[in-house]
Amino acid sequence: MALTFSAPTTKLSLKLLESYGIDSSDILKKLNIDPKRLNDPHARIPYTTADDIWAEAADRIDDPAFGLKAVDCWHPSQMGALGYAWLSSENLKNALTRFQRYSRVVTEGAFFEVEETPKYFSLILHYRSVSRQLPYRTDAFMAIMLAMCKANFGKHFIPAEIHFKHGAPKDSKAYTDLFQCPVFFNAKDNRFIIHMQDALTTSEGAHSQLAKLHDQIMIEYLAKMDRKNIVEQVKSEIIKQLPNGNVTDTTVGQALHINDRTLQRRLKEQNTTFKTLMNEVREDLAATYIKDTNLSLSEISFLLGFGNISSFSRAYKRWTGQPPSHLRTGG
Fold first, then answer.
1. Is 0.85 topped by the overall pTM?
2. Residue 293: which domain range?
3. pLDDT value for 331
4. What backbone phi and psi angles, to 5 degrees, belong to 111?
5. Is residue 218 part of a domain?
6. Residue 293: its pLDDT value, please?
7. Residue 300 domain-assigned?
8. Is the residue at 184 inside a domain?
9. pLDDT for the residue numbered 106
10. Treating both helix axes as pointing N-terminal to C-terminal, what angle do 208-225 and 274-289 enclose, rounded to 10 degrees?
11. What is the CATH number of the domain that holds 256?
12. Do 117 and 24 lie in a common domain?
């Protein structure tokens, strides 16, 4: 199955073209892209076509560092639920982790890894084999990440370091001027690094309930996008059923029209189990709910499908090493 790219997200690259006075409609016509699809949140194009847009841009723009101008072209609507979930994330660490987790909503031609040390938090970009790994596209990604972090942290945000796998340009001034931090070329990977202190600073737009809502939208979107992805389908159904209590592989299987044995087999093929996914969903939701002071511990226990607070408390302590009451009171 061909890997795809979110059609609305391509508006970012088209906006970049237009900032140089280039009519993007010619490129859309040449690549046989219906402009109407760019406003359809569910529409997708082949990832190779997204690469083609950037290659066409490079042919038309007389600026080797044009990808960096993407910093002025990003808008959360281009990424749909992922863009708005980013804005409502508690801090940049959560935002970057959320981006890594749900990036397939935007692109299947790349995947991301997060890495943390006591001092730094990194988002690492890896291209899949289908990608031509165009240097100016990597430049644009790093510039977009800068714009996204500034949207959460503030205009004064400065990364710790930026690493590019591609070679150094003849003049790197445009890079250092934009990022205002050490920039490395010919690096072992493409890496956006921020100071851990900045990563943990609470964002002005933090809103746990909105973030959770957008997470659910993305989980459901991914399940619909890839009907064969049994893991995403099961997680989505678990989230729906949790408040009803007594969620089992049988109830989830019935909702997905799969018998118990088939469900267990398909999850085993993905190196996981129903119990593992149930714990993952509960742990992820608990991390969001516990920060919402409008929810009591008893309400959280109910939303997560636990019979009582003590069951939830034991599970929470198993996940985090401390009971929920250690973070706040409630219930």
1. no
2. 227-326
3. 45
4. -140, 165
5. no
6. 79
7. yes
8. yes
9. 96
10. 150
11. 1.10.10.60
12. yes
Opening angle at CA 217, ends 15 and 115, nearest 5: 75
**Tens digit of pLDDT at every position of the chain (331 positions):** 468 999 999 999 999 999 999 999 999 999 989 999 999 988 999 999 999 999 999 999 999 999 999 999 999 999 999 999 999 999 999 999 999 999 999 999 999 999 999 999 999 999 998 899 999 999 999 999 999 999 999 999 999 999 999 999 999 999 999 999 999 999 999 999 999 999 999 998 999 899 999 999 998 888 777 665 788 788 888 988 888 888 999 999 998 888 989 999 988 887 889 999 999 889 888 888 887 778 889 999 999 998 889 999 999 999 988 888 876 654 4
**How many distinct structural domains can be found in the chain?**
2
Statement to judge: residues 190 and 248 lie in one domain: no
**Shared-domain flag, residues 37 and 148:** yes
**Phi–psi pair at 200, nearest 5 degrees:** -100, 0
Q: Are residues 75 and 150 in the same domain?
A: yes
The 3-class SS string of the chain reads: CCCEEECCCHHHHHHHHHHCCCCCHHHHHHCCCCHHHHHCCCCEEEHHHHHHHHHHHHHHCCCCCHHHHHHHCCCHHHHCHHHHHHHCCCEHHHHHHHHHHHHHHCECCEEEEEEECCCEEEEEEEECCCCCCCHHHHHHHHHHHHHHHHHHHCCCCCCCEEECCCCCCCCCHHHHHHHCCCEECCCCCEEEEEEHHHHCCECCCCCHHHHHHHHHHHHHHHHHHCCCCHHHHHHHHHHHHHHHCCCCHHHHHHHHCCCHHHHHHHHHHCCCCHHHHHHHHHHHHHHHHCCCCCCCHHHHHHHCCCCCHHHHHHHHHHHHCCCHHHCCCCC
Confirm whether 283 is domain-assigned: yes
Say if residue 160 is in the same domain as residue 234. Answer: no
- The CATH number that applies at residue 73 is 3.90.1520
280 and 318 part of one domain: yes
Q: Do residue 151 and residue 242 come from a single domain?
A: no
